[in-house]
Design brief:
By secondary structure, this protein is α+β, with helices and mostly antiparallel strands. The protein has 26 helices and 30 strands.
Length: 928
């Protein structure tokens, strides 16, 4: 049965009408709705058995805004005109939002007032619909009344995967189509030339400029190198694609396909002319390249590191400058919060005693390699140029990305004696969501959870019969920058002594206005020059020689390899213990931290193809593209090399507890990102969970409360503000403006330093003035504290390595403002260490110099008071300048989370929470 929204359900969630885009005129809305609403097809209720569920009703999950990410043209027009929502498009958003004000009184019995019951199966009384896609007798898709999540049950492997593909297309077809075009660098041609579309396709094309042959080769290699499981993965993918394409055909002929195809000019709403292209297997690799690049490819930034090192050496001299640089880099800070905190060491990416092969650029010689050529129309206007610059910066700074969190407690410290986990990925907020929920039951597959749309042949994060798993981005360095010496011209380079031509890869896109995107016509060509050491990212000179800096990541040309690990995670005959779980995730080549819980054990493992570097190579900096400095046993044809063995990856079984918020994994394990120091948002979790474990008797609700409390806390307030106030209060504050500000900050700090509403739905923060003051003060105090000592050039270079701040209202991260994820990157550790040093406290791993007031307490106090007075006098409209969603000065709105539209359906913004997008709460009661 084709999935439908009942006629009256379209009006179930009326909200205040919004201002309509120009193309949505009232008369045309009514006419189109009348012509496009299709007749209801009745479902036959069916029940699903759940005898293989060992969670005892104690597994829950949540994924806002809702499961249904497809909308017909009529539904889109109703949403734009009146704010109505298709069924199950928004029904998880309120549950998710309400935890922010409801967590303080949470009990185990109330958990599912904020989460979904993620037990296997659907009770017969809760079946909303049941269908056999394409009339197949070997698969049934049951959707539940509460959330509309598809529960796919197959009697054959092919039928199971066919159903998974069919359900994915039912729920995310438009989104899947968008992202296969993003992965191919063709978004503007498909969806329109808006500046954001230009920026998105440019970001990913620079990272993964694959040809069709490249995409197919990755599939062939993944299958060939993985025996029976590789063959099974190929068969699963083919069946999954058949399911997607069956739904495309059915929705096309039945005219209930996503309305965005009409609004972007691909289909005609009257004649039904136009096509929706079938998916092919290389589309899955294009999709995987987007997800892997965004969330699982740690590293990069070597050229920026070199620039800041040179600036430090220019300022202080080579020896002292290197010492200063290393102190800010915090490769292995002794005060950093660790996921594996039992003292075990896993050395990787450490500084060599005698660095070899470094290719540092001549000062001022670095230029970014152009990506866009032959731009015309809106491809060449000012907003397009800004989008291109932002995309380039984002693409070259994957080391700055970090998302997701996990809290896992051993059964030794819980009330029940069973482990408890609260974990999930922080993947941003989109409409429709990048992830989708599903349950898959079939031969060799038994799981429920979330998968990225278009890659949902397996559950990627979720639960099996008697175990659950999740991941956070880890960020260890699997990317290196090579300096290749140019020869003959700018497009030839020396490779093993031979002058070799670079390969030119290009994609030409053009667009014209559509109903959905009124951007005027334009075009451009994206061009990437590829070497055997990867794509060219920068040009420079080294010792006067012209070079190109390239970027090589170990997962490049291996986007499909991780499918084997996910297949294993879904196989109940494979994962039966923490050891087999660790074995499964070892087959995932992306950089993730993986967590596991069953009824008895917990486990952790850090995945990724960590290349074994040549002796003496420092991964922090560019190195010469020469055989002596290549990855060990590197094959440029296949981009394979020796990788560190599993035993050398951070891992653990049954530690007392695990926390991860993209913090440092273990002793001596260096991540590519800066900021793994004394103050990290991981501290917010660690402090709370450590306290729970010390007290014992941990419950699911207690662990959820710890997560929720951390999600509302301003990291600067909890971990840095107390020492700032100590400096200020080291003498009596006589200035009335400063004294008033101190009082407000102290009052907020005493109340917990949280950014939370006065009451549910008030859209006003408690202690709002103190929050405004700290938001205004932080950038002022950081600059006043560090710029005089570092000097302009080095200060600027360090800010290019690490953002000063990442407040909820900042336009940070790959999703921009209103993105939820906050306090991942900032100078809080630097401020903390420097201020504690000035106060005379013991600091392990201190900065090489004292900066605040040159180390003088009184001078430092003067700086803090002066900047605090300026901050106190800064208006809310200046601190929160407003945007297309929020008026200037609206603090709550500036922080609020928006489901960024990737289709035609819009949703209301919700109060800020620094929390996973998809989240599970699990406590298994028994084991097979």
């Amino acid at each position: 049965m084709p999935r439908r929204t009942r006629h009256h359900a379209l009006f179930d969630k009326l909200r205040t009408p919004r201002k309509l885009p120009g193309f949505l005129k009232a008369a045309s809305v009514c006419v189109l709705i009348a012509g496009l609403l299709s007749p209801l097809v009745q479902a036959t209720p069916a029940a699903a058995a759940a005898s293989n569920d060992y969670c005892g009703g104690q597994c829950s999950d949540i994924l806002p805004p809702g499961e249904n990410g497809n909308a017909t043209l009529a539904q889109i027009l109703l949403n734009q005109a009146f704010g109505t929502q298709p069924s199950h498009a928004e029904d998880q958003l309120g549950l998710y939002n309400n935890l922010a004000t409801g967590y303080s009184t949470l009990t185990d019995a109330k958990i599912n007032t904020f989460f979904n019951d993620s037990s296997f199966g659907v009770a017969s009384s809760q079946v909303a619909s049941s269908e056999n896609p394409a009339g197949r007798s070997d698969v049934t898709i049951v959707r539940d009344k509460a959330t509309g999540v598809p529960h796919i049950t197959g009697t054959t492997r092919y039928g199971t995967e066919f159903g998974a593909g069919y359900a994915a297309a039912e729920d995310r077809l438009w989104l899947m189509d968008v992202f296969r075009h993003v992965g191919r660098g063709q978004l503007t041609t498909f969806a329109g030339g808006a500046a954001s579309n230009q920026g998105l396709e440019q970001e990913f094309y620079r990272n993964a400029p694959y040809s069709e042959a490249d995409l197919q080769a990755q599939i062939d290699n993944a299958v060939a190198n993985n025996g029976t499981r590789g063959q099974q993965a190929l068969a699963d993918a083919d069946a999954y694609l058949d399911g997607i394409n069956s739904y495309i055909d059915a929705s096309d002929s039945g005219r209930y396909f996503p309305g965005e195809y009409v609004l972007t000019g691909h289909k005609d709403s009257i004649t039904n002319a136009g096509t929706i292209d079938h998916f092919k297997i290389t589309d899955l690799v294009a999709l995987a390249s987007v997800i892997g690049t965004l969330f699982g490819s740690g590293g990069g930034g070597e050229v920026n590191n070199a620039i800041s090192l040179l600036a430090a050496q220019e300022k202080y001299g080579v020896t002292e400058g290197t010492k200063v640089w290393e102190s800010f880099r915090e490769r292995n800070d002794p005060e950093a919060v660790l996921t594996v905190h039992n003292g075990e060491s896993f050395p990787y990416g450490t500084k060599p005693d005698n660095p070899q092969g470094e290719a540092l650029p001549d000062a001022g010689s670095v230029t970014t390699e152009p990506l866009v050529y032959d731009a015309s129309g809106t491809g060449a206007d000012q907003s397009a140029t800004a989008a291109a610059e932002t995309a380039t910066k984002t693409a070259l700074s994957s080391a700055r990305r970090g998302m997701s969190n996990a809290l896992v407690v051993s059964g030794k410290y819980t009330a029940s004696g069973h482990p408890i986990a609260v974990f999930g990925p922080q993947t941003g907020y989109f409409a429709p969501q990048l992830l989708m929920l599903q349950e898959i039951q079939g031969p060799g597959i038994s799981a429920r959870g979330a998968s990225f749309a278009g890659l949902s042949m397996y559950v990627e994060l979720g639960r099996g019969q008697d175990y659950a798993w999740s991941a956070t981005t880890s960020g260890q360095d699997i990317i290196d920058s090579y300096a290749v010496e140019l020869c003959q011209d700018d497009y030839h380079y020396l490779f093993h002594g031979t002058c070799t031509a670079m390969d030119e890869v290009e994609q030409t896109n053009s667009w014209k206005p559509t109903t959905a995107d009124s951007t005027a016509a334009g075009s451009y060509t994206m061009k990437v020059w590829k070497t055997k050491y990867g794509p060219v990212e920068y040009r420079a000179t080294v010792g006067g020689k012209k070079v190109a800096y390239t970027t090589l990541r170990s997962s490049y040309m291996h986007e499909a390899d991780s499918i084997i690990g996910f297949q294993m995670l879904n196989d109940p005959d494979y994962v039966k213990s923490p050891q087999t779980f660790q074995s499964a995730v070892q087959h995932i080549n992306y950089t993730f931290n993986w967590f596991y819980a069953d009824s008895t054990h917990t486990a952790y493992y850090n995945s990724g193809n960590n290349p074994v570097r040549a002796s003496g190579v420092d991964p922090e900096f560019p190195i010469w593209g020469q055989a002596a400095y290549e990855w060990q046993n590197w094959d440029p044809t296949t981009n394979t090399a020796d990788y560190t063995p599993a035993a050398q990856h951070p891992q653990s079984i049954d530690q007392d507890y695990y926390v991860s918020w993209n913090n440092k994994q273990a002793l001596n394990y260096t991540t590519a990102s800066w900021g793994d120091g004394s103050v990290h948002r991981g501290n917010l979790l660690n402090d709370r969970v450590k306290k729970l474990v010390a007290a014992g008797g941990v419950t699911r609700s207690a662990l959820v409360k710890a997560m929720a409390d951390a999600s509302l806390t301003d990291l600067r307030a909890e971990d840095v503000l107390p020492d700032l106030l100590k400096v200020i209060n080291s003498s009596t504050v006589t200035d009335t403006t400063a004294a008033a500000a101190v009082t407000k900050l102290q009052t907020w700090l005493t109340a917990g330093g949280k950014r939370t509403e006065t009451s549910a739905g008030s859209k006003t923060y408690a202690n709002s003035d103190a929050i405004r003051i700290l938001d205004a003060w932080w950038p002022l105090l950081v600059k006043a504290e560090f710029q005089p000592g570092l000097g302009d050039d080095l200060y600027t270079a360090f800010t290019n390595n690490l953002y000063i701040d990442e407040t909820p209202s900042a336009a940070h991260g790959p999703t921009g403002a209103h993105a939820g994820s906050s306090f991942q990157y900032g100078w809080w550790s630097y401020v903390d260490k420097d201020i504690r040093s000035v106060l005379g406290q013991t600091v392990s791993g201190p900065l090489a110099e004292q900066y605040c007031g040159g180390g003088s307490l009184s001078a430092c106090r003067d700086i803090l008071i002066s900047t605090l007075k300026t901050a106190a006098g800064t208006s809310a409209s200046t601190v929160y300048p407003g945007d297309s969603l929020c008026s200037a000065g609206d603090q709550w709105c500036a922080d609020s989370i928006v489901q960024r539209t990737l289709g035609g359906i819009k949703h209301y913004n919700i109060s800020w929470q620094n929390r996973p997008t998809f989240q599970q709460v699990v406590e298994f009661t028994s084991h097979r």
